[in-house]
Amino acid sequence: MKRIFLIEDDPKIANLLKEYLEKYEYSVTIVQSFDRIINEFTESDPHLVLLDINLPRYDGFYWCRKIRSISNCPIVFLSARDSGMDQVMAMENGGDDYITKPFNFDVVQAKIKSIMRRIYGEYAVTKQADFIEINQFILHLTSMEIEYHGTIASLTKNEFILLKEFVEHENQVLSRTHLLEILWDDEHFVDDNTLSVNITRIRKKLEDIGIKDSIQTVRGAGYKLVNTWG
Amino acid sequence: MKKFILDQLGNILFFYSQWVLMIIIVQIASRFSGTTLSAGILFYLFLLPTCFYLVFLVFKYFKQRDFYKLENVASPHVGLPEPSNHLLQILRDQHDKQDSEYQEKIEQLEQHKQLEIDFIQQWVHQMKTPVSVLHLTIQKEKMNLPESFADSLYEEIEHLQQGLDLALYQSRLQKFDRDFHVDRISLRSLVNESIQEFKTSFIRTHVFPEQFIDESIDVATDAKWFRFVLHQIITNAIKYSKGHSEKISFRSKTDSQTTTLQIEDYGHGIPKQDISRIFDPFFTGMNGRKFRESTGMGLYLSKEICKELGHEISVESEQNAGTTVSITFTQPKV
């Protein structure tokens, strides 16, 4: 399990981040006393440091230099300051990355993951199974295929993203808004229509492999995956 | 020189009038004694004093020349030259006194202004922390909250964030050492990034962006400031599209010299009489009354920022048909 050391003076943000990151199997230590940052750092011996800039007593740049003088541990700045100068300063003082507040959990997690992978190698990422199974219905995560009783169908990227979300939240209503949000990536923006088309196609493909009516429309709320095959 | 002669004109006239008067009196007096002054003597009586007078005037001119030359100095910050008489001395002392008083006042004002700017920036950053906490809390609880509730909270948080950004950029723009770092950046990735940031607003309002920007287009701009401008335009586009239309288009046009980014919505539009004033500070117009949370500062700041960055921003709109904002990057392409 990778250890993260969190230097953030706002207890609420610190706890929310800790809670969130712990879900992704990181062990998170929040700094306790701003006079003993270096001691606490060495005690927890982290794989990565999340560091705020505006801190009591000394600022984040100072602590970054201090940590750099004793360790090569990756440091990610996390700050409300968004001027180019601050980001340059952060890098100059030994930071590896910079995230501005307010941030998305996903962004933080993605950045941490990518840095961990770069520094500690691919093996560091917790090994996940490459398929999800519910009552013999199998979603293959790497090949983006679905399988039921030996019949296989392949999915497009959007279909895969949607179906994965459904499988992970079985019997839970997923709103159209939420589904649209997970479909958007850096380059492609989809609209209501695309979502409907994709849902229709998923239903069709599920039907093709022998699973009927499992994605149900909930009027005025969204869709849910109901286990109709098991 | 001309000004000096003009100033001396009174003296010269007075000098010669006295001289003529003297000669006339001498002439009359000598006529009583039976003799008259010959033309030669009269000529000398004029010539000699004129010579001495000329020398005196030239001497005087050279002493005061520095003052007369001030007229041709372009810079307003040159101190007054060494005074040649008491009058000029008094004038200079008075000038220096006023000058130092003004300097002091300006310094005080600048200090106040700086304090205010520092305060606002610090305050904005302080306010960002609670906004972050709210944001994170909702992200965490999202699946457990009723959708409409989460949406409305998100919406309000976004308004808070935008308001804070507005304050921050306004105070930054006023600062004398604004940090502009102009780089060549891919226009498409800049636009995509901003669209991503508005993901939830787009989806929530059922307005969807379409983007037709060539991947190869780079523009010279400052990413941070330009992003602010884009945010203002996208916020407006979403606001005026809501319930009217479902598309906002991002296009680029290039010719040999310039690149233009066009952001077009097909929504509510801007009333004709308001268009010419939308870039004025605090101008909210008809739409400001119809749609709440208008400060009238977003577009004003955008215009100012574009001016600093060397871009040109313009707006075309037709009511109930839509609005197109164009930003032209005027720097020649590398």
UniProtKB/TrEMBL annotation, chain A:
This is DNA-binding response regulator. It holds the Pfam family Trans_reg_C. The modification 4-aspartylphosphate is found at residue 52. One of its GO terms (molecular function) is phosphorelay response regulator activity. InterPro entries: CheY-like_superfamily, OmpR/PhoB-type_DNA-bd, Sig_transdc_resp-reg_C-effctor, Sig_transdc_resp-reg_receiver, WalR-like, WH-like_DNA-bd_sf. The keyword Phosphoprotein applies. One of its GO terms (cellular component) is cytosol. Keywords: DNA-binding, Phosphoprotein, Transcription, Transcription regulation, Two-component regulatory system. Residues 3-116 form the Response regulatory domain. It comes from Virgibacillus phasianinus. Residues 129-227 bind DNA. Residues 129-227 form the OmpR/PhoB-type domain.
UniProtKB/TrEMBL annotation, chain B:
Residues 88-115 form a coiled coil. Gene3D superfamilies: Histidine kinase-like ATPase, C-terminal domain. It comes from Virgibacillus phasianinus. It comes from the Bacteria. The chain crosses the membrane at residues 12-29, 41-62. One of its GO terms (molecular function) is phosphorelay sensor kinase activity. It catalyses: ATP + protein L-histidine = ADP + protein N-phospho-L-histidine. It is found in: Cell membrane. Its EC number is 2.7.13.3. GO terms for cellular component: plasma membrane. It is an enzyme of class 2 (transferase). This is histidine kinase. Keywords: ATP-binding, Cell membrane, Coiled coil, Kinase, Membrane, Nucleotide-binding, Transferase, Transmembrane, Transmembrane helix, Two-component regulatory system. The keyword ATP-binding applies. It is a multi-pass membrane protein. Residues 122-333 form the Histidine kinase domain. Pfam families: HATPase_c (PF02518). GO terms for biological process: cellular response to phosphate starvation.
